[in-house]
Amino acid sequence: MKQVAILGATGSIGSSTLDVIARHPDKFRASVLAAHRSTEALADLCDRFRPDLAIVADPACEADLKAHLARRGLTTAVAAGEAALSDAAASSQCDTVVAAIVGAAGLASTLAAARAGKRLLLANKESIVMAGPLLMRALRDGGGDLIPIDSEHNALFQCLPGGRPELSAVGVRKLTLTASGGPFRGRSRQDLGAITPEQAVAHPNWRMGRKISVDSATLMNKGLEVIEAHFLFDAPPEAIDVVVHPQSIVHSLVEYVDGSVLAQLGNPDMRTAIGHALAWPGRVDTAVKPLDLVALSRLEFLPPDRATFRCLDLAYAALRAGGTAPTVLNAANEIAVAAFLDGHLPFLAIAEVIESCMDALGTEPVQSLDQLIQTDLTARHTARHMMRRLHC
Ligand SMILES: NC(=O)C1=CN([C@@H]2O[C@H](COP(=O)(O)OP(=O)(O)OC[C@H]3O[C@@H](n4cnc5c(N)ncnc54)[C@H](OP(=O)(O)O)[C@@H]3O)[C@@H](O)[C@H]2O)C=CC1
Ligand SMILES: CC(=O)[C@@H](O)[C@H](O)COP(=O)(O)O
Ligand SMILES: [Mn+2]
């Protein structure tokens, strides 16, 4: 029986993970459930899944969570604060950690799980973008497995022999990530001037949290995924390609030197990637609707519109610059997307803010976690300053 800690249990990935776990009570148990501030939703999950421990990252919410649990007659142990997330991720209360917190807030617990040698199911792409070299080192030192659950990287993992081999040793020429193109595929810059948050989060194929949905709309999600692929598979930037595939049926492809191209296909439902990662190297039924190729009939592939959706090339530039540049990119993006969602920044200005932060801060070689945390804070401060200069 796998004991699974779900960090970000109240979110979209958390809920898909719990759906898979609920279908296999003989194989998986949700032993730790964590959220940020959604105490009532977390207490409801405790009622249904009976974990050993429930965590709220915001210490101010601890009393509220306890009250919700007591009202349900539950005696679940409660912990609070960011350190409690890392402690639980490294503890004997779990052997598997689903890193499903959104944003850089997930970094510490993701690193803790890697260092402790847990099976790490990585959804929190911001942590690997922010601190890729340190996360990969922690993983090697900890000796555990990392199985990506971001759908594209899970697809690549499935198309590679042995999951994450040395690419040149197994004859890989190129990794191709598919992108849906988001809700604004085909639009020009002139069409995007007055985009609202509600329009931006209306993803055509996936139901996801608000931050990643905006990232999909700007193509920054694909940019973050290019950097994620670089660190996960040790692939150089020139060996990572992006193709727009509006149906989100082909989740990514691996091209080999003999001309073979292996792809992973499936209906767009995160339970496939999550079920694969939970059960790997086995397989479990996830109740995902089987693919009907004849009903689909047509799959399209197009080049990304890099001039309209500039975030993709900003991410490639950060990856090529190396060092702390991806940390800056990620932090500036988090600040700009939050401001857009709050109605304080126009959609097209997201890329402007990120680019001006990258220009202002440049890059330095990665030395330590403290340095990256400081870079993240500086980039957030710079992004706020740039927003005031550019748009307020
Ligand atoms: N959704 C998807 O299909 C996919 C998501 N991902 C990645 O997975 C991650 C999660 O995405 P998604 O599930 O969509 O996001 P959601 O916004 O739906 O959920 C986010 C979760 O993280 C928790 N959380 C937010 N802030 C903090 C914090 N500071 N400390 C601790 N917990 C926090 C939330 O708790 P609370 O409810 O209390 O706010 C919630 O449980 C992201 O990195 C995303 O890029 C990757 C591929 C696909
Ligand atoms: C489900 C998943 O993995 C998301 O990252 C998804 O890929 C977003 O869709 P886009 O291809 O539009 O970025
Ligand atoms: Mn993805």
Name a few traits of the molecule:
alpha/beta, binds manganese (II) ion, binds 1-deoxy-D-xylulose-5-phosphate, metal-binding, 1-deoxy-D-xylulose-5-phosphate reductoisomerase activity, DXP_reductoisomerase_N, 4-stranded mixed sheet, binds NADPH dihydro-nicotinamide-adenine-dinucleotide phosphate, 16 helices, 1-deoxy-D-xylulose 5-phosphate reductoisomerase, Rna Polymerase Sigma Factor, Chain: A, 392 residues, Rossmann fold, DXPR_C
Summarize the structure.
The chain is α/β, with parallel strands linked by helices and 392 residues long. It has 16 helices and 11 strands. It folds into 3 domains: 148 residues, 3-Layer(aba) Sandwich (Rossmann fold), CATH 3.40.50; 140 residues, no CATH class; 71 residues, RNA polymerase sigma factor, region 2, helix turn helix motif (Rna Polymerase Sigma Factor, Chain: A, Orthogonal Bundle), CATH 1.10.1740.10.
